[in-house]
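for the record, two folds in this file. i put them one after another cuz i was lazy. first one right below, seq on top, structure tokens after. the second one comes after a little note so u can tell where it starts
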Amino acid sequence: MKKITFIIMLLLTVTLTSCGPTREDYVSFNDELVSYQLELINAINDLEATFEEYKEEEMWVALDNLNSAGKKCRAGIADLNIEGGDELKQSLTDLNDYILHATKNILIDMVKNLSIPDDDYTDEDKAAYGLMYDEYDAKARLLIQEFLDQQEVMADANNFYIES
């Protein structure tokens, strides 16, 4: 009888301790995603800082660095998986994919626009830049907020807190 009780207790212990990811697993998953998000946002900020100086070569380098950060982010995100983490992972993937798309399109147009010599820069060029920037910024901010919202959902569901 002792043997049967021992086996039942052992099975119960194994079952209870192997029921999926722990709180710490979710925190680790979140932290890894945030590290990729921060790398991407830092590269965005670096690019936008070059916009203020109008140095064409620095803008192109920063744009290339943003593209590289996006590719690194994509590869890192693809390797991360946890039960219940698909929506959070997808929200960062959406942000990353938008930024990668933008580095091939609207951000190139913005760099070209800001590379126009001062003497040739017209009010139409300034207005065009403003429209491009507003479009890009609005979409990026929306996707960043979607990631933050999904992060809160995961934190609430798995009993951990997001520190800002």
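(here's the note) second protein begins now
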Amino acid sequence: MENKKKFGSIFLLVSLALLGFLGGVAGEMFSRAFLSDGYYGLWPESEINFSKNNFNSPNFVIREAKKVVVEQNDRVAQTAGDVADSLMAVYEYSPEKEKSASSTGRGAYNLLKPEAVGLIMTSDGWLVTKTALAPAKTYVAVDRENQIRKIGKILSDKFTGFYFFHIEARDLPVRKFAARAEVKNGQSLVVADWHGRAALTSIEDSRGLDAREIRSSDELTGRIIIKDALTEKFIGLPAADLAGNLAGILIDRNTIEPINHFSGRLESMAAGKFSLPALGFSYYDFSDWAGGRYDKGVVIAPAGKNPALILGGAAEKAGLKEGDFITAVDSIELGRDNKINEIIQNRQPGDRIPISYLRDGRSFEAEAVLSEIK
């Protein structure tokens, strides 16, 4: 009998110890999940090893996962602040409001409700906005330090539907423009307003590719498609990568107008006009197809009933012909990361560019003088 009592006591002690241990484990997991700084998931380790969980990524291990999340949050906040510094709020000029403000001491323009937001494109005062501005009206721009400047020249860009305007200024902060080849699928982007409020998204389709077999050398490249549909309040605001480089401007909840659609034309804009450089032919791009004769480069080809080359265009004047296989433009080899349209759009009408091509199996070089689309 005494042995049974002794055994029962031992069993009770072991059971209590086991329950205490399990309670401690549960408490640790609870504190990690809910009592630590922020909620980063129920991870009992300092690393997340995806190779343990059949993620088809045998070498994918995130060490110090919580630290990684915190660091990304810091980068998002830093990027949002940097982008905000390159924005200005736009209002229709009101001498009555400014007169009233000077007499009452109240502000003339509500910083929480800008009528438009402009992105600084050049240090000497050119900005761009998606909001329509009437050239017949007078506007002012307000920077982050509440300095008010009158807007002078306003230009409408028929190719993108955006508006450029100029203020008298120098040494304005300009963010670096991301090259189109640097904008990749899966890349994180921060869309921010001029208060620094931000949304984090990622790129689903960096080039907005379509399935057309024949394209024009003179059309704008495709727009950037993002994975997450953002709220409407972010439409018209710039998107930047986590290094702060500008990728473009959000034009609807899922689509970004690439920054290279604007940056390549800043020189012509300063002259008071908008124009696109043109090479003047249609083409088939081998880098978009598999199983063909080549895996990169383009061949000049007709688009339906339209001729392959524009009569009197830059390519035709340079001696190019239908069927010529172009391997490089402006000394840049064509391929998936170097599309011919992207190269041309970064040039100006009148620029001379070398073209490398094959004809009947022989290599040739030509020089084309880019024409102008007005």
